[in-house]
Design a protein that fits this description.
The protein is an alpha/beta fold and about 550 residues long. The chain has 17 helices and 17 strands. Strands 2-1-3-4-5 form a five-stranded mixed beta sheet, with helices on both faces. A three-stranded mixed beta sheet has the order 12-16-17. A three-stranded antiparallel beta sheet has the order 13-14-15.
Length: about 550
């Protein structure tokens, strides 16, 4: 055998893998910033990108850039500006985002960055949820097309929202009724649903309300009188008529002073179409909010009046007098001021379901104490509702103590999760393999079962054999399905619970350094506080299911 010269032998090729200096970029929009239970939070975005990078060793994280509460319509953002400066300085040559909408929502300018600016600067761009990687863009251009289409669709939805708002406003200005249920005392016309006609069943109730108010009776006293007469409130009547479903969130069926005030404030009852008292806009990212009376859309003489102008003017004069007196009272205590109503709309009466209202008590020495009281009990609207109130100072101390306990518990749970994840590094991959195998088995059994009847018809199986084999395949399919569901439930638990991004942990983590209860903390962590007596409360936490599942799962694993 001839000898081969080592000198002329080809040396094995060494494949060099480029190590990318990677930036994580996350953005939260103006309208989403501060929202409760936001699954697309800054923390979640960063966590998802970190998980992706951990599976790609050629990506080395240099820095994380974030814009919290910044619009995606343009690129004039502090975090993005810092990112571009670092790219120009040669510190970054790869950007990874959760999805393209986090990078930018202006599809023309975003496309300019992806197609021209970043490639010119030698920067790789990866959008995880869009399956887009500029390094493979030539072979997978569809990823960019789909991503940009999503941005275009988003712009289209907002454009449609703006057009709908404009159309609704035009109809309101034309005097058409465009809301849902008609105001109490009216109903929609059967001939023209945009017009209102008098609801004779309750028309006299409305006339009595205005009559009593014009005679000087307070809104609270009118509400109490209607309750004593057994007259159904607007909410209760809608339930009784089947016009709307009952709500477990709002259980109070009684007339209240605020209901009377809303009715007697409305020009609807003198025949003037009054709309736009509240406004909301997806187009502008605007949450629902009440409008000032000067901003209401009022079109005169569009339907039959329930109240004569003389009665209306008397009620109007009383309303203006009350406003002036309230302003005078406010002025008297203006030097005292109001602190932030931390627990607004969170405290719920255990008896009637009403939201407790905060009252300010001022002593002769200038001391101020705030107390939350059930308005139904205070106004004697329902004598079965027991007396209950909560001092704000006591409540704040109690909530802070409970939150502190939850923070301590959550710190320990997070440490435990980290240890479990290290110990069970391949658990998720193993689960996915088991799920795929179970799906394969179910498919195989389905195929076998599908051929049984044909074999029976072709006389390859007797009737007894057919029945026995079908029963066996059915049993196998049901067993595999049960096992698959169990595996999928375990996988979901791994993804949603056994993670530092568990919704409860994410929510409470941001308040670990707080020393007092803030409005932001209360809204983020508490669903409601049920009050059953004097300073007697039960806290219902947000994400209670996630917390309970986390506690149960870690308890089982540790055991």
């Amino acid at each position: 055998m001839p000898r081969i010269s080592r000198k002329n032998a080809a040396a094995p090729e060494t494949v060099k893998i480029k190590l990318y200096k990677t930036a994580i970029y996350a953005r939260l929009s103006v309208e989403d910033s501060g929202k409760k239970d936001n699954g697309d939070s800054i923390e979640n975005q960063v966590y998802l990108v970190e998980q992706y990078i951990s599976q790609n060793p050629h990506l080395k994280v240099i820095s994380t850039y974030m814009d919290n509460g910044e619009t995606g319509v343009n690129f004039d953002r502090p975090g993005f500006t810092r990112l571009m400066n670092d790219i120009k300085a040669g510190k970054i040559d790869c950007i990874v985002v959760k999805d393209l909408s986090r990078f930018g929502r202006n599809y023309i300018e975003t496309g300019e960055y992806l197609d021209k600016i970043l490639p010119f600067m030698g920067v790789r761009f990866i959008s995880i949820n869009d399956s887009y990687d500029s390094e493979t863009a030539d072979s997978n251009a569809e990823g960019l097309i789909v991503a940009l289409k999503n941005l275009i669709n988003d712009a289209y939805v907002k454009d449609i929202s703006g057009k709908i708002i404009s159309s609704v406003k035009t109809r309101q200005q034309n005097g058409d009724y465009v809301s849902g249920l008609a105001p109490y005392g009216y109903r929609r016309s059967e001939e023209n649903g945009r017009k209102l006609v008098i609801d004779e069943e309750v028309a006299d109730v409305v006339r009595d309300i205005f009559k009593w108010r014009s005679e000087g009776m307070s809104c609270f006293m009118i509400a109490r009188k209607l309750n004593e007469k057994g007259i159904s409130s607007p909410y209760k009547r809608r339930i009784e008529k089947g016009w709307m479903k009952d709500s477990t969130h709002y259980r109070n069926p009684h007339w209240q002073g605020q209901m009377i005030k809303r009715i007697t404030d409305s020009p609807m009852y003198i025949g003037h179409m009054t709309q736009g008292r509240t406004v909301q806009s997806l187009h502008d990212g605007m949450p629902i909010k009440r409008q000032k009376p000067s901003d209401w859309i009022i079109v005169e003489n569009t339907h039959t009046a329930l109240i004569d102008m003389e009665t209306w003017e008397k009620v109007k004069a009383l309303r203006e007098k009350t406003i002036a007196e309230n302003e005078k009272t406010k002025g008297k205590y203006a030097h005292i001021g109001n602190n932030n109503n931390v627990f607004k709309s969170i405290l719920i009466c255990d008896d009637c379901g009403s939201k407790l209202v905060r009252y300010k008590g001022v002593s002769n020495y200038g001391g101020v104490a705030y107390t939350y009281i059930c308005p139904v009990r205070t106004q004697n609207l329902d004598m079965t509702c027991t007396n209950k109130n909560v001092r704000e100072k006591d409540l704040s101390e109690l909530i802070y103590q409970e939150v502190s306990k939850k923070i301590e518990q959550s710190v320990e749970l997070e440490k435990l999760i980290t240890r479990l994840n290290k110990r069970n590094g391949g658990t998720k991959e193993t689960l996915q393999a088991k799920i795929a195998e179970m799906q394969r088995k179910i498919g195989h059994v389905s195929e076998l079962r599908a051929t049984l009847y044909e074999s029976y018809v072709d006389k390859l199986l007797s009737e007894t054999e057919y029945i026995e084999m079908k029963a066996k395949y059915d049993s196998d399919a049901n067993r595999y399905k049960t096992q698959l569901e169990s595996l999928q439930a375990e996988s979901l638990m791994q993804d949603q619970t056994l993670t530092p991004q568990n919704k409860w942990l994410t929510a409470i983590r941001q308040f670990k350094d707080e020393r007092t209860v803030s409005r932001e903390m209360a809204v983020a962590l508490i669903d409601k506080i049920i009050v059953s007596g004097y300073n007697s409360t039960e806290i219902i936490w947000n994400f209670k299911d996630e917390l309970a599942a986390l506690e149960e799962y870690t308890k089982e694993v540790v055991a």
